[in-house]
Write a structure and sequence with these properties.
The protein has 14 helices and 17 strands. By secondary structure, it is an alpha/beta fold. The chain folds into 2 domains: 4-30 and 299-408, Aspartate Aminotransferase, domain 1; 42-296, 3-Layer(aba) Sandwich (Aspartate Aminotransferase, domain 2), CATH 3.40.640.10. The longest helix is centred in the N-terminal third of the chain and has 21 residues, at 62-82. The chain starts with a helix and ends with a helix. The structure holds 4'-deoxy-4'-aminopyridoxal-5'-phosphate.
Length: 409
């Protein structure tokens, strides 16, 4: 596990963490929304624009070739990070949202017809609901929803019962952005495959907190965003098994994704370019690769155990506050702590914590259907990264206690 001295050293890699807001030292606990960036990632962006900037895959000139080499090397870094079998299985997108939209659109176009079913879970982010709903509406598909128990855990037996001969794909989050629940995705994938159903894993909240090995999982598709894993905004990843990506039609048309074009007919490029229409964000991809190298050097397992310990500490600390209720008490949880305090609206809690320099998120966290299942309007959510400390958790707890006192006075 990471020691406090190591955390202090790592914190120094993140320039923004020294910022003050309202004259208070920033305590950034909104990492599930986006993570802060280490200096090496910020420097990589500058380095790309000051040394190798040129459009990739197009030019015969030196810079273009060098930029292409960097871009393809970035793809290999992503491939290794999630242990994909081939770089052809790594598609750069704009983010997890675009990755899921790509699969929803291309998969449903190719493999679904009226009456077919897509199975999701009750704890999905809007990004893993709406793209499927849009296809369901267009093609006459049915969207089924696997329920959760009172702790916020998926009920596996019921998920399996919801699989019918018409089920084509299960789309499920690895870690819930609201509850912190770690879903048993290996078990879900095994169940799905026994029924010849494909699985898409929304890994937007997991790749930064736990080791993800797509071959060991045997998932068919997996999506994540660079900005939640210490990389830049505007880039994301879609992993897909080569056989499925080959079978899917392109998502968008344009440059890069073609082999040849005439006014009559276009033949498409090979993988992964078939899914990368237009100039890719090669600068973003290079900076994402830098973030992944940075994490790998620290050690994702070390990060996981430190964050786990921090979450336990925070859970204990906040649980001791009278009137505070933790939302999401799954046995397996990571890095997300949602709560409500009796008599204090989440928005007021978030606003007043902000005045103390503490950044948390309030509201439905892009999971309105889950809020309805839980019978609440929203939560306050503190979400942790490895650069957060016990002292910051103490400040959060003290802040909540002060606010509760204000409201009770
Ligand atoms: N899925 C989950 C579980 C998320 O938490 C998020 C981001 N909050 C997304 C998908 C979408 O990610 P992005 O907005 O980066 O595309």
């Amino acid at each position: 596990m990471l020691k406090q001295t190591e955390i202090d050293k790592l914190r120094a890699d993140f320039p923004i963490l020294t910022r003050e807001v309202y004259g208070k030292q920033l305590v950034y606990l909104d990492n599930a929304a986006t993570t802060q960036k280490p200096r090496c990632v910020i420097d990589k962006i500058t380095e790309m624009y000051t040394t190798v900037n040129a459009n990739v895959h197009r030019g015969v000139h030196f810079l273009s070739q060098e930029a292409t080499e960097v871009h393809e090397a970035s793809r290999k870094v992503v491939q290794q990070f999630i242990h994909a079998a081939s770089p052809n299985e790594i598609v750069f997108t704009r983010g997890a949202t675009e990755s899921i939209n790509l699969v929803a659109s291309s998969f449903c176009n190719a493999f679904c017809s009226e009456g077919d079913e897509i199975l999701i879970s009750a704890m999905e982010h809007h990004s893993n609901i709406v793209p499927w709903q849009m296809q369901a509406e267009r093609l006459g598909l049915k969207l089924r929803v696997a329920p959760i128990n009172e702790r916020g855990e998926l009920i596996l037996e019921q998920l399996e019962q919801l699989i019918t001969p018409r089920t084509k794909l299960i789309a499920v989050t690895h870690i819930s952005n609201v509850l912190g629940t770690v879903n048993p995705i290996k078990a879900i994938i095994d169940i799905a495959h026994r029924h010849d159903v494909l699985v898409l894993i929304d890994a937007a909240q997991s790749v930064q907190h736990t080791k993800v090995d797509v071959q060991a999982l045997d998932c068919d598709f997996l999506a994540f965003s660079s900005h939640k894993i210490y990389g830049p905004t505007g880039v994301g990843v879609l992993y897909g098994k080569e056989k499925w990506l080959n079978a899917l039609p392109p998502y968008q048309g344009g440059g890069e994704m073609i082999a040849s074009v005439s006014f009559e007919k276009t033949t498409y490029n090979t993988l992964p370019y078939k899914f990368e229409a237009g100039t890719p964000d090669y600068v973003g991809a290079a900076a994402l690769a830098e973030a992944l190298r940075y994490l790998t050097a620290i050690g994702i397992d070390k990060i996981a155990s430190y964050e786990q310990e921090l979450l336990s500490y925070a859970t204990e600390k906040l649980s001791s506050i009278a009137g505070l209720r933790i939302i999401g008490t799954a046995a397996e949880k990571r890095s997300v702590l949602s709560f409500l305090v009796e008599g204090v609206h989440p928005y007021d809690m978030g606003t007043l914590l902000d005045r103390m320099g503490i950044a948390v998120r309030t509201g439905h966290h892009c999971a309105e259907p889950l809020m309805r299942v839980l019978g609440i309007d929203g939560t306050v959510r503190a979400s942790f990264a490895f650069y957060n400390t016990r002292e910051e958790v103490d400040l959060l707890a003290e802040g909540i206690v002060r606010i509760v006192k204000m409201f009770r006075a």
